[in-house]
Design brief:
Blueprint: H1 10-19, H2 31-47, H3 49-55, E1 60-68, E2 80-86, E3 92-97, H4 105-112, E4 118-120, E5 142-144, H5 145-155, H6 167-174, E6 181-187, H7 189-202, E7 216-222
Parallel strand pairs: 3-6, 6-7
Antiparallel strand pairs: 1-2, 2-3, 4-5
Helix pairs in contact: 5-7
Length: 223
Amino acid sequence: MSTLTPVLNLCQKAFLLTRESNRVGDMQGDTRTLAKALQTQLNSFLALPDVQKAMGGQWSLVWGPAVFETQESATSYADNVMYVAASPDRSSYVVAIAGTNMHSDYDKDQEDNDVNTTKLWTAAFPGLPSYGVPLGINPWPVVSTGTALGVNNLLGMTDTLTTQKSLLDFLRSLSGTKTQTLIFGGHSLGGALAPTLALALFNPSGGPLRARDWNHVHVLPVA
């Protein structure tokens, strides 16, 4: 990154952070091994002087990274990866979700390609409270089986490196000030999971989080 790079806007910062969530895609290891490797790489990346200049200061890891593997082993690849980074003044938080790992058959065959079947939105996320459907919605909304699978993987993650919390519990601990901005972002597969995860958490018909507890809640997926 050139030292002449100007300070990025918030959308560009979110894209850069979400891109970095894919750094361990070609590595093998169990979930904790890969999470620690990504933690080290992200901390080094965020400390680079040119990155700090572009990002307007040093952003920091505040949740995760967390890794999901459908069959965990020392030779497995990451299937889903997610972390949260905070701005230097803790006014903005980015939930960064990794894209398709081309080393993961699970990603390609199930999360990406399982679009021939769907699940009712009201029952797609069993770990969350039951949803209602707004009046006038007919037929009821559905989500692809593959996307529901990926979002449930993300909801089931626990940050074992720092907070010992799920993403939902971590976001609950932040909400309520009405002064902070929250962004969900991801590329490729992450670009499908980010808006779905955000709507699952902030669903006005029964989601566990409320947009009014934040200054802004944004979704910035990238294809």
